[in-house]
Fold:
Amino acid sequence: MINLIFKASDGSFHMATSNVNKFYNDNDDFIVKYVEDFDSEYTYSVVDDEVVKGDLIVISDDDAAEIQAAITSTSHHTPRLLAYPSIGEQLDLLYHDIENGTLDNTGEFYTAIKAIKDSNPKAS
Amino acid sequence: MATKVKLIADGVITPDQITLTTASTGTNTTAPATTAFVQQEISALVDSSPEALNTLNELAAALGDDENFSTTVTDSIATKLPLAGGALTGNLSIGDSSSRSFALYIENAGSAGAGQLMLVDSDNDTLQREIRTDAGVLSFDYWDSSNRTNHLTILANGKVGIGEASPDTILHIKKNQSSANSTLKLENSAGGNNSSFSIDWQLASSGTSAQIKADRTNSPGAGDTDLIFSTSTTGTALVEAMRIDSSGNVGIGDSSPSAKLEVRGSSNSTYLIAGGDDSLNGRALTFTSSASANFNGAEHTINAPSSQGVIALSTYSTERMRIDSSGDVLIGQTSQTGYAFAQKLVVGDGDANDGITIQSGSTHQGNLAFNHSDGTTAHGRISYQHNSNYMQFFTDNTEKMRIENGGSVGIWTNSGKTDAQASLDIAANVGVSLRFSSTYNYGPNRDWQINTNNYGSTNWGGWSLEQSTSQQGTPSVARIGVHANGNVGINMGGDASSGLTSINPATALHVGGDITVGSADAVGTSGTASIRFQNDNERSRITSNYDSGGGGRLGFWTDSTGGTLLQRMYINNEGRKVTNNVNEYYERIFLVNNTSYTFDIDVKSIGASGQILEVFAGYTHYSTSYGAVLKQVWSQRSTAQSDVQLISSIVNHSTGNAGAWSFSYVDADTVRLTKSAGTYGGSGWGYILIRSPD
Structure:
């Protein structure tokens, strides 16, 4: 059981939600339908105010390759993000580098960030 | 005058020569008689006798010159009947000169007329009796000096009329008197004890064919007399057929009747046939009563109207019962109005309370049995047992239903059960069913049936409530089933053929569809609909209430250590979840990657002024390393500054061009989260979670 929201202009699928957000309530740009079953691997649309379940969604090889390339090119983001110290800690490192006159690639800030980047290199 | 006498000597003296005094008649002397005396005496002797008898010769001739006339006459008279009476030794013929051979022959002497014999009372000669014959009719009449009244007539053909001058039978007695005087009396003057007097009929050459006899039986008391009617089948051997005894009792076929009418026979035959010729009210038998003042003189009748072919029984001149020409018995009515297949006995007049009472002994049973031509078996029967006070109903000669004295009802189908052990005890050897049907022609109507102990079912021992799929159809769809283990299944499918086989509820209550708790009438907007969970006591509860502003609020309750149920979580009418006093907005979302989205959050409904709001938003493409996440902390300022302040954006990160979350204001109460469109197609699941202490 889930709510499906379609674009009123062409009946195309917009989103599915467990709880229709107030933005979509009484919004003439969208059509909200409640359905018992929803399979995210299929397309959905509204035709004549009725929900129509379409074909199985197939990702083309080119799209898959392009997506995979994007994934690869950004795969280092998340591990680095998770490894970086908090903003406060980084600011504290910068404070110490300024105080110590080591605001260069020998300072604590640079050294800590450089270590994380090196540990999570960008995919080539 | 002087007398002169003249004597004459030897000469002849002529008469005229002598004159004598004529002596008077009767003189008897020696004096000579004068001729005149002689003439006088002769004349006296003749005494004016008829001319033909005034001489001795003529007299002698008249006497037949019979010198022995006296003897002759005496002898002749001696042969005659004296006036004083006597024995007439010869025949007497009156009115006819012919010699008759009859002892007494009377004939009207005239040329015509009846021969008559008149008998007159010398003391009152006006009272005369006449025996007469005319034209061959012998009649005995009464004369009152002017009128003749016929009393007895014997016609030429032998018919006898008494009081009837023209009898049309052998004996015709006619009474013309209003009095109750006896008309015919038969007396046996020699009668005494054990004497009898009979009238016999002989219709054969000999013997007696029939008889009416008055028999002085002297029993039970002296002088008691019975009147006996006997008939004969052989013409000779009389057999008593009927008797009226001295007490007035009538016995037909019974010589000692003990009732006013007692009819008996020695064989199985018809003893009494009664009839009437009135086409509508032919009255065959009438009974009257005089003992009761209320019904004194009332007539109770058995009528047999000839044109209707019925026998009707009436009391107090009102018909109470009849057997009609078809053999149907009607009690309380005169025309058949009963059910066409149950018309042999119809009771009641149709306009008042009526009924039939079967009265039996206090330790016996009263029965109403239904049988057919095969003998004495009561295939159907309604029986009441007075010793235990219960009512039984039998079909096929087996008890199928019983109503106990306490009102318990047992309905049994070949179960062998004979004791209702509940208010309604339905039993069968295999499978018990209870059906509810509606024949009203309304399309949605369905038949319902409760089945228990379905033979062959794996759920043997359970029961099911089944519904037909059509109007007045056989129930075949199980709506409620109770498994032998007690689990209840509702709308789980299954049909009658499988019984409870397919109804195998996995839990105590297994519903094959939605469950609705509460209703507009029972709960409404002010009440609470709940589902409760109990261990030793109620430990958990789910409630639903009408939330302020409309919609519903779903609450989840558990008990505390002290056993008091507390609401631990609720979901309000906007979908926000409040758990352990943490107010929460949660929305699970499925987004298309290359589409932008907008979500407006009514922050005032999540947290009050001055509270912290934790904001989480996430989205991942179907690839796990491709998505956008947001984690921020917002605060709500004072009421006067009721907008939302971003305190910290802990995480706002996107990978793989999945788009990014951003934060903005809409108005004082609303914050907008947006996710920009990603680069590529595809889609994925995500969520928005905003929460605050309640």
Notes: Residues 618 and 629 of chain B are 4 Å apart (CA to CA). The mean pLDDT of chain B is 81. The radius of gyration of chain B is 70 Å. The interface with chain A takes residues 574-575, 586-592, 595, 597-602, 621, 623, 625-626, 651, 653, 655-657, 672, 679-683, 685, 688 of chain B (CB under 8 Å).
